[in-house]
Design goal:
The complex is a heterodimer of chains A (497) and B (213). Chain A is α+β, with helices and mostly antiparallel strands and 497 residues long. Chain A has 13 helices and 14 strands. In chain B, helix 1 (15-26) links the parallel strand 1 and strand 2. The chains are: A alpha+beta (497), B alpha/beta (213).
Amino acid sequence: MISGNAALTGSYDPLQVALSVLIAISTSYAALDLAGRVTATSGRARLIWLIGGSTAMGIGIWAMHYIGMLAFRLPVLVECDWPTVLLSLLVGMLCSAFALVVVSRRGMGLTYALIGSAMMGCGIAALHYIAMAAMRLPAECRFDFRLVALSVVLAVVFSFAALWLEFYFRDEPKNSAWRKLGSALVMGVAISAMHYTGMAAATFIPAAPALDQSHAVSISSLGTLGIAAATLQVLGLAVLSSLVDRRFDSQGLELALTETRLELAHVARIATMGELTASIAHEINQPLTAVVNNGNFALRQVASGAPNLEELREAIAEIVNDGTRASAVISRIRALLQKGAPDRVELDINEVIQEVTILVRHEATLSRVSVRLDLAADLPRVLGDRVQLQQVLINLVINGIEAMRTLTDRPRELLVKSAKNADAVLIQVQDSGKELDPEQVGRIFEPFFTTKPQGIGMGLSISRSIIESHGGRLWTVPGSSGALFQFTLPTDGSSVS
Amino acid sequence: MNERAPIVFVVDDDPSVRRSIKRLIGSVGLQVELFGSAQEFLLSKRPDAPSCLVLDIRLPGISGLDFQHELAEANIHIPIIFITAHGDIPMTVRAMKAGAVEFLTKPFREQDLLDAIQLALERDRARRQGDAEIAVLRERFESLSPREREVVAMVVSGMLNKQIAAQIGTAENTVKIHRSRAMQKMQANSLADLVKMIQRLQFLPARARKLRW
């Protein structure tokens, strides 16, 4: 199309240009903020955040474009074909969506960043040029293709910078607000640079309107719509963000609570172990004593010149056994003292009970308490954390032993019983001491409630939370002679072989 | 008196410790008997021979220290060597005050245990010998007539025959006869001998002291 007419000269309203850039930046911020949540989610939530982010991005680019167009003054009436305008918005959103999918992957590498920013840059450019095609004015639009190319390149490069900034460093919690602001700034620049370079590439030559005018709307109304949309979007995001953050916060709180609980359980274990020091020393010293004695015996035999080989072999075999026994005690203690994430394995609860009995045996003897076990054979296995269940049992048993220390009118007996109970295993710890004070029964599981002079009142409360985290229940049975504590652990149906 | 072979009793609730102690003591040629609890030891038939008891402090049912007390109450004077995996000072003091021979912390040096056992057996031998001598003296004393006992009591308190005769209203010669018969029955060679014998019988532990004069 050849025309001798001079090109129309356009001018910019600097205030509106500034507004367009500001809108680009603020909507980018909103979009990146939404998209930033994509990584942390999965499934439907991920889809929602993705749609939100790309919609925000699309609207942002779109709004910037029309405010930019509003700032651009031509001496003729400029209108737009709204179906094409809508199409441009759609393309912008789709490209943003693709870009966000790519860059929101966990551990975004350089390749993904490049693909993502190419998508984003092309999306911005596509939106722009489709929107240009939507223009209805008594002029013909011609492009300087070098500048068009430059505009696309600028869009891609700035997008890359913005996405890299936001997504590559997203796992560093430090300065995350500043980082987001920075990447929004760069993204806003990407959109604006693309737009104004693209505008510079275009020349408008007066000509008769050649395109369909039936769906034309004025550019100023589109610009106003753009401002409104961008404002609404930023406001909406602010509200949404605060709502979501609150939810995230409460999730974080839950997490912190779980961690604190673990920590507390660990501290309580250490405290319990402290009470059991004498027991532990005894349990290790016994086998060591036997080892030393047998070793001395063996030395004597060898020194005698005519050792009785059979006796020597027996003594050495015992040394090996006792060494193993001491080391088993040590590993049990270590396991109890270690801090670790709960480890659910299939357990024979009777085995756990027997291990605990060994640890508290000495404590019981010192307090003249006889510990009796009544363990059901053929119990199904339970799924649980060995250390935590030992902790619960130690707590209950020690409580029982301590409760009987002042008992003088009847034998001090502690009964630990295991039994099958429907689809659970029932474990009972019963002492022959005083009945529980009915007034206190309701409170004994509360944190910091204690009847012991030196107690901190965490044992039962931690025990209960451990059992509940195993899907079981811990409670006391009123009206029994002495105190009776019992708990259930759900079974997985398979039987202990 | 024909002395029988000494025997060491071991009471410890840990079978493997028990066995190791038996090996060790057995290797020096001593006879050993093992028990898992104080009750078992009490119920056992103990031979009449010098013996000692190696006793764990921590026992099921009753503590070693309380058992020591019970044995003393029951007039069983067996020397005790305590062994414990975790002794503390109050425990040691209590045990030693109550007459324990030694208080060893597990794991102990074999020589410490063997020395303690030797010492304990020595003590038991001496005690047994003393007991036997006292028994003989007591038997002799029991054979005195009431009158002779009366005379002996006055003689050892330093009274002269004349004074004794005046006191019991009899002739001095009669006192002399009583006195020499008593010396004969007690197998005392001199007055000093007789005084020593009576003193030994008098300075027995409370329960054994009741001399009927």
